[in-house]
Amino acid sequence: MSEFLSLPDLAVRTLGGSVIAASDESFEEKENLINPWAPAFHPETFGPKGQEYDGWETARRRPDAGGELGHDWAIVRLGLPGVVRGVVIDTAWFKGNFPPHASVEACAVEGHPSPAELAAAEWVEIVPRSPLEGDRAHHFEVAVRRRFTHVRLNMFPDGGIARLRVHGDVVPDPRLLTGLTVDLAALENGARVTACSNMFYSSPDNMLAPGAARNQAEGWETARRRDAGHDWAVVRLAAPGVIRLAEFDTVNLKFNAPAAVALWGVDERTADPDDKDAWVELMPRTRVQPDGRHRFRLEGLPEVTSVRVDIHPDGGLARLRLLGDLTPAGEEALFARWAELTA
What we know:
One of its GO terms (molecular function) is allantoicase activity. By secondary structure, the protein is mainly beta.
């Protein structure tokens, strides 16, 4: 399995991605490319345009008057701009109508550009034109280390692609974060889960996603423990900061919420996170209830770079929010990364 698959999908709709333009979508809509669920297929489901597919499918191309065949394309606005580490082009269920080749380009454009403005942007090839097979997920590692806001999927010459996954590291715009109270644990601000005790049912990164969890699957849930221990997850904050308020959301977890939670922190610039004595208690073990939001104001905490959330003994969390202030060192780190990846 490709290592980049553990990174967030910067393009998925649930994280704010959008397919904003396509050359053609005669058979199936372009928006299907970034649906969060695995592609499905139901045989002999014929609509007015033919067999229905869970993906993007274009019409058969024919040469123009000049003999040119051309190719189809779709532009995706990344919900979370960042450095792309790998791309998945999935032709699931497209067996006789997949494109024989595809490529991916990327660009970085500030603000909220229109499709016409993006057409004039400077595009960089991040996946060269590569052969595809039908009904298969194709993994492509990306070596370009720059922050991008949009990608363009090209297929040669036409056909169907079920999903496009764009995995990478989130790089937020520091100009939108500095001087404000921010969620230091938000995925969209650059936070990530770096370790956890158990993710049997779902990934702990789900806790850091924007918006509210619509169901159990959109949070973090562990298997049932049969020992005296407890489950935990370590979150690397968006940047060094001081937490002022912690929110533990157990919405949708009615019979599998933890009985209690606790919060610990460490400054990895000055302490070894592998040393258990380096961790400082930020919030003691505190009772929580099922299916609800719990907010705790925290006073006098130290500057930290990572936190560990403990759930006793097991269960899950729908969302974790850690509101606080970036320290001067945190702001400096964000701007340094921004300068490096946008030069």
